[in-house]
Design a protein that fits this description.
The protein is elongated and about 70 Å long. The chain has helices at residues 15-18, 138-147, 189-198, and strands at residues 30-33, 52-59, 67-73, 77-80, 87-97, 109-113, 118-126, 132-135, 152-162, 169-177, 183-186, 203-213. The protein has two domains: 15-113, Immunoglobulin-like, CATH 2.60.40.10; 118-213, no CATH class. 11% of the residues lie in helices and 40% in strands. Strand 7 (118-126) and strand 8 (132-135) form a beta hairpin. By secondary structure, the protein is mostly beta strands. The longest helix is centred in the middle third of the chain and has 10 residues, at 138-147. It has a four-stranded antiparallel sheet, with no helix packed on it. A three-stranded antiparallel sheet has the order 8-7-9.
Length: 218
């Protein structure tokens, strides 16, 4: 009886958030990655020495894949090309072995291609007033660690954003409370303008810090 290979692409596209370098996302491409397939659907391990390959497919409609590409043997990532910013893609994959066995399709993943590289956001905790500070600036991060660590505790990378404006993104504005050194972030133009006009004696406007995606899709 022909055995079916288990093919669940854990976190398909999620690797974009885990490793968002400029090589991962460009205007027209994005790298998709997945976990290694090691078992059949009955839980039996794929024998040692048996190679596993992967086929990646995607399209702009659910279950209608117009692109089908063989990632090759034992490859756990593939660079999707020809993508259009602002377009939603439906992505799936399947595995096959050197014993001429193959899986069914993985669960479909829905991905909106914004078409710009992401950068890490670093977080600091003010241990005196429990306020948080977020920055994408390497120099600001290093300065705080080197000079202000008695007040600001470095908590590492928290998430990823866009350093420059891209399709489907909006700016995030930052304010510093000059009385207690707390920070305020907002994407609201009206809130930004209200604070500047009415609360500038307390809140110092520090400009756009980064951009975030706000486009909703299914």
């Amino acid at each position: 009886m022909k055995r079916i290979v288990t093919c669940l692409l854990f976190g398909l596209i999620f690797a974009l958030y885990a490793n968002p370098t400029s090589a991962i996302i460009t205007t027209s491409s994005a790298e998709v990655s997945w976990d290694e397939v090691t078992t059949y659907t009955n839980g039996e391990l794929i024998p040692t020495g048996v190679d596993v390959g992967y086929i990646v497919k995607w399209g702009t409609q659910s279950k209608n894949y117009t692109e089908l590409h063989d990632a090759g043997w034992d490859q756990l990532k593939y660079n999707m090309t020809g993508l259009v910013p602002g377009t939603t893609y439906y992505i799936s994959a399947r595995a096959y072995t050197s014993l001429n066995e193959e899986s069914g399709d993985s669960p479909e993943y829905v991905y909106l291609h914004i078409g710009a590289p992401r950068v890490p956001v670093y977080r600091f905790l003010n241990i005196k007033n429990w306020a948080y500070q977020f920055t994408i600036s390497e120099s600001e991060k290093n300065y705080i660690i080197s000079n202000l660590s008695a007040t600001w505790k470095y908590e590492g990378i928290q998430f990823y954003v866009y350093a420059n404006r891209a399709w489907g993104t909006v700016p995030v504005y930052r304010f510093l409370n000059i009385k207690n050194w707390a920070y305020q972030f907002t994407i609201s133009e009206s809130e930004k303008n209200y604070i500047i006009s009415n609360l500038s004696a307390t809140w110092k406007y520090e400009g756009i810090q980064f951009y975030v995606g706000v486009t909703k899709y299914q």
